[in-house]
Amino acid sequence: MNLFKNDADFKMDVLREVGNIGAGNAATALSTLLNKPVDMAVPTVSFIPFEEIAERVGGSEAVVIAIFLRVDGDAPGNMFFILNREPARRILQGLLGFNAAENDEYSELELSALSEIGNILAGSYLSSLADFTGLHMSPTVPSLAVDMAGAILSYGLLQFGTMGDDALLIDTTFLEGHQEAEGHFFLIPDPESFDKLFRALGVPI
Amino acid sequence: MTEGTLIKVGMADLNIAEGGAVLKTTGLGSCVGLTLYDPQLRLGGMAHIMLPTSEIAREGQVNIAKYADTAIPELLARMKSKGAVTGRLVAKMAGGAQMFAFMGGSDTMRIGPRNVEATKQALEYFKIPLVAEDTGGSYGRTVELNSQNGVFSIRSVQFGVKEI
């Protein structure tokens, strides 16, 4: 199935740039927060079956830490900042300065710190996107969950759910030094938001 | 299908199993994992329901496994074609959680409870008794139905495995 009637490749490129700008700013914010370099991979933009989205973060049953927020405004959508348990531990260690979350239990402080990180990153992602497009976009209060990836991500797919069995995902991976993926930034604009994004960026629809 | 065979049911998907095969669907959040079981034939069916009603569908070719009001009739038909009798069937279900609490007001965010409601309505319509359920809460679930004995097991991160 095709989401875009014409110029699909070009439109995917534009969305990749959207991810690049948003996540670039978020990576800078994370790097400032942790006081160490944070790299990001080139964003991937894909129109993929619901099932495959959870595969990006270890599979439907993989336990992840996810910060979810809804994007309100001109081009609504869903945003997730997803961490696996190891990187989350390292981030907390760097931020709070003590050995956090030895087992699978997280304290109130740790959860609140992770939630705040998500808030800051999503805020910088969205504000750069809003500057770039001239569209009004604001994040809702972030909500944090530590649970199965499939259960969490399905929330971001409801808007696409009525249209088909695939969703458009803008996925940016954060890397810490040369280590493997630190986290993922998922932006899943609502189906209705694409025309608005393209119009704002001067892309013929 | 032989004993121990695992049949995976994806998101917005349904399937049936017999001869001891196990139906499994993973990572249910707001989605509902509904199972039907005919104890006499040792025949089971499972649907991973994502949305309550096909009235909201805007897709050209509606995926009938996705919506409670279309998935249940389809699952029923598939089981009947294998010889199941509606009067013998029992239903079990799990899922319908509200993973994120903060936006309680919006309809989209209440999707879990709405999926549960719609599933129950459809079961009532076909007069299939719901004998066990593990729904609601704010956590994800992975479920399995054993076609050998109709045992429905539910795994969650917080609570481990339980059978209903």
Automatic annotation (TrEMBL), chain A:
Q: Which Pfam families match?
A: CheC
Entry keywords, A to Z: Chemotaxis, Hydrolase
Q: Out of the domains of life, which is the source?
A: Bacteria
Residue stretches making up the CheC-like protein domain: 12-46, 109-144
- Under what name is this protein listed? Chemotaxis protein CheC
TrEMBL record, chain B:
Q: Which residues form a coiled coil?
A: none
Short name of one Pfam family: CheD
What this protein catalyses is:
L-glutaminyl-[protein] + H2O = L-glutamyl-[protein] + NH4(+)
Q: What is its EC number?
A: 3.5.1.44
Q: Which UniProt keywords apply?
A: Chemotaxis, Hydrolase
Q: Which InterPro entries match?
A: CheD-like_sf (IPR038592), Chemorcpt_Glu_NH3ase_CheD (IPR005659), Cytotoxic_necrot_fac-like_cat (IPR011324)
Question: What highest taxon heads this organism's lineage?
Answer: Bacteria
**Known function:** Probably deamidates glutamine residues to glutamate on methyl-accepting chemotaxis receptors (MCPs), playing an important role in chemotaxis.
The UniProt similarity line reads:
Belongs to the CheD family.
Please identify the protein, giving its name as recorded. Probable chemoreceptor glutamine deamidase CheD
Starting at the broadest rank, the lineage of the source organism is:
Bacteria, Bacillati, Bacillota, Bacilli, Bacillales
